[in-house]
Design a protein that fits this description.
The protein has 178 residues and is α+β, with helices and mostly antiparallel strands. It has helices at residues 26-31, 36-42, 71-80, 107-118, 170-174, and strands at residues 6-11, 20-25, 52-58, 65-66, 86-93, 155-161, 164-169.
Length: 178
């Protein structure tokens, strides 16, 4: 499968409609000395690797997996994608959310482009799972009970941005012990 496997490289953002979709075979990608810098050249990005996050997804995967270094590109593909006809690499700005939690503004357009490139092969979709907005099920350090079981007036919800929240007890944050 390695020589005929199609790799789709998608540069996208959750903030703008700008995008770029490129397709090459895995064999041709391997010839480029696979790296995150090589991916940026493929999608024609002038930015540095540190300004982006890289994600891999294929039909065999239930979620996109972040590629943290150059070695993880081929290792992850070999483990999870070796039997899949299409592998998609998503490139997003480092301050963008994961493809698992948000759709890019250009999603519909890039999906059409990816379908054109893939021909008869069905393109796997990343299932978007928005972050849970309910109270965490973590234990409160002071009471050793689930935080969600505390009275609402005893909870403090910290907004971490981008839809992420953490809930703590007032006692824990104030350092009061029983």
């Amino acid at each position: 499968m390695a020589s005929s496997q199609q790799w789709l490289f998608v540069l996208e953002s959750t903030y703008t409609v700008e995008h770029n979709v490129q397709a090459i075979t895995k064999a041709n990608f391997l010839a480029l000395n696979p790296s995150r810098a090589a991916i940026l050249k493929i999608v024609d990005s002038k930015n540095h690797v540190s300004q982006h996050t890289f994600w891999i997804h294929s039909r065999s995967m239930s979620a996109a997996v972040q590629l943290l270094d150059d070695m993880s590109i081929i290792k992850t593909a070999d483990i999870y994608c070796s039997k899949d006809p299409i592998v998609t690499i998503y490139v997003r700005n480092s301050d963008d959310e994961s493809p698992n939690t948000s759709r890019a503004v250009s999603h519909a357009t890039t999906l059409n482009l990816r379908r054109q490139v893939s021909g008869q092969v069905q393109i796997p979709e990343v299932i978007v799972r928005p972050p849970r907005r309910n109270t965490s099920s973590s234990l409160d350090i002071i009471s050793q009970e689930p935080v969600r079981s505390l009275a609402v007036e005893d909870q403090v919800i910290l907004d971490l941005g981008k839809g992420k929240q953490e809930t703590y007890s007032k006692e824990y944050l104030l350092g009061i012990t029983l």
